[in-house]
Amino acid sequence: MDIRFVINARANTLGGQFRAWLRPRGWLTAPDNLPASLRPVLAAALRGDRWLVVDNGNFADIDSVVDAAQAPLDTAVRVVSDLQAMLGRTVRRADLPNAARSDLAAAMEALQRAATITYARADTRLAAQLALPASHLIGVEDITLATALRGGLTDQTLPWSRTQVRARNQRTVRRATTLRAALAPARRLTYYPVASALNYDHAADAGRLFAAAGLDRAAIGCGAYMADDSYADGYQLGRRWISLPDRLPNRYLRTALVVRGFIDGYRAVVGQAPTGLHLLGLGAPIMLAVTARAAVGVSALSFDATSPIKDAVQATLYTNEPAYLKIRTWKIADRLLTNLRAKWTCPCPPCRAFTAAHPFEYEAARTTWPPGQDVTIDALRPGGLLYPLFPLLCEPAGGPLRVEVSTARMAHNHWVLQGICRHLQLAATNDALDAKLATIIRHYRSAAGATRFADAIELAGRIGSGQLR
Ligand SMILES: [Zn+2]
Is domain 2-305 annotated with CATH 3.20.20? Predict the structure, then answer.
């Protein structure tokens, strides 16, 4: 298994220093997002065995489709949330009264209408994508289900049956087959149509369809799953509702269920995993491990996300030691103050370069900080007590230090994700992904404590490993 996190190609990630620090093994761009001035820089960054995932750019359409369907969506989502409040548990398909069903159907109709425009553009998008030297072309995609989730619907409140969702994926597969057949033979090996699913069953059906059509490369849009803040007390598996003892965050469960479902469905038809799988919008450290386990047997597995860039600016750093986590900077500051032997010892080149120029002043910070007081982000802002003492964690309002801080953190976050991919790849090569995932989840649990997030991750890990109930 070759496992890579591909980095969003932008002016700041294509910079010489960033590339020297990280030596990225892959990049992602979309034709609309790559200014002409960056094309030669990207070409240079691609020398050697490096992947270029050329996205279809559809993710940007999701919010506008949701906006276009706002009025019927508001009605439908309100009806469902009232019902949920009344029942005191997750609303399931069978709970929906007829009036709610027709509100949901109206919302879905509006979403579908708006999403059709994106779907219809697949061939012109592909023509633009072909101008770039892609190793992966993210292909035709039906974003309707992603917009439904984004708009507040779930697989349970979706007014489409499993058969209807399957028909949508069948339509995508037919279109993908046509578009792919028109490509030069070498390019066909780079074509990654996007499967569409909100639960295990949808994904398993999609996997079967892809396999039956000989589409041995696929992408799954995980961005909408990971942006979902909802909780559920169970999940659908075939005709069964698997009840959970607590309400758990859907983002981890759905991501694990869909990736595992797709691979299971695919494998059921051809006896092996697809050659290539790209997971769009997935950059949460722990979920790389969960989904890599689910995708075991895939030759080329890749991930992309803008989250390591956004998180860097929004005071969040990633770690892989002692656990795969995203940690807020003030929590790190708190630990550095209360644990007298703690230091920020990240060995990554950006952290080393930044802290050499702007060192942590541990002693001064511990002497200055009022004992027992919790650190908040205000302490790291200009004028805050820790602002001059913990520069990597601080929040300059602007100027060169802001750029330096954000760049170092952004590079650090990517460095962590690259390291995770390397570890997972090594474990996969040694046929030891199960043991690796178990260790990763144990460490996550001991760092995160007894939280619903840890419960969800543990369950997602089991799902990724194929223990579905
Ligand atoms: Zn670092």
Answer: yes
